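User: Could you go from structure to sequence for me? I need the amino acid at each position, not a summary. Structure tokens:
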């Protein structure tokens, strides 16, 4: 099928209390592993990209890759732009076939975040594309953005309500609830109470950032509280590397690249399927 739109996928997930995995792709082989893993489990899936990855491969090639992959399967595959502050990049992604984009104004003062998010919202909605927006500071490292976990700022419930009133057609909302990008250096401290307050006040699917390293019960609790989009980036990147290095350790003299590509693919696809099963989206395509 053609590339799917993320908003209806997430509204269904929100209603039925399961999570849709959103994997940050690295290259074509990575995207192939994500799509094929979803197809094997009959699950909806989101492929998302950081700005730095787009700069490597280009807008059109990525759009063409994901379009071709989505047309080869029977499950919905959405193409999403992850954390982005550049309206020109957002427009170019939309022009190249992205079905949703994220504007990240979380580092801005609240009113300025609203003002700049409104610019992105108008661009996206006029093109029929979904928008993700963020409040608060999610700790850790994502793309070129770093927030010390001790300095991470939880989203304020009243601000979440006010913020979302400006954007009635928002596809997904990303409030900071204590998770962190990258690898956790200690026990994740998720503000479940804050999440419950936000989801009871705001009827928009929630994005859970910083999914790598969370335990099964932590995922389950967040998803049952309204987190319909679950981001996985660091784990997927590590599996990309491990698929190569494990084969290299097993066969140090192997000089043919194709087996390494296949090993990476299988390693990543296994991780994709594990997350789909854990988030409860298997069979929900």
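Assistant: Here is the amino acid at each position, in order:
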């Amino acid at each position: 099928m053609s590339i799917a739109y993320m908003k209806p996928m997430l509204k269904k997930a929100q209603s039925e209390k399961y999570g849709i995995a959103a994997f940050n792709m690295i290259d074509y082989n990575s995207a192939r592993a994500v799509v094929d893993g979803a197809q094997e489990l009959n699950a909806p899936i989101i492929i998302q990209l950081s700005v730095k990855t787009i700069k490597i491969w280009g807008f059109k090639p990525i759009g063409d890759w994901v379009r071709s992959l989505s047309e080869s399967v029977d499950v919905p595959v959405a193409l999403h732009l992850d954390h982005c502050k550049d309206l020109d990049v957002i427009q170019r992604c939309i022009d190249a076939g992205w079905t949703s984009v994220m504007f990240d104004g979380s580092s801005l003062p609240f009113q300025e975040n609203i003002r700049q998010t409104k610019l992105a919202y108008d661009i996206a909605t006029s093109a029929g594309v979904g928008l993700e927006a963020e409040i608060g500071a999610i700790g850790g490292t994502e793309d070129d953005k770093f927030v010390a976990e001790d300095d991470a700022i939880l989203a304020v419930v009243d601000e979440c309500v006010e913020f979302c009133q400006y954007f009635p057609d928002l596809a997904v909302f990303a409030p900071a609830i204590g998770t962190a990008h990258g690898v956790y250096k200690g026990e994740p401290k998720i503000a479940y109470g804050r999440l419950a307050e936000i989801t009871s006040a705001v009827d928009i699917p929630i994005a859970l950032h910083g999914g790598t390293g969370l335990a099964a019960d932590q995922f389950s609790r967040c998803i049952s509280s309204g987190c319909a989009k679950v981001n996985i980036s660091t784990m997927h990147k590590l599996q990309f590397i491990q698929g190569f290095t494990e084969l290299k350790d097993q066969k140090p003299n192997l000089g043919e690249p194709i087996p390494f590509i296949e090993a990476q693919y299988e390693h990543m696809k296994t991780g994709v399927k594990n997350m789909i099963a854990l988030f409860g989206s298997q069979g929900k395509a």
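One structural detail worth keeping in mind: The domain at 6-279 is CATH 3.20.20.70 (TIM Barrel).
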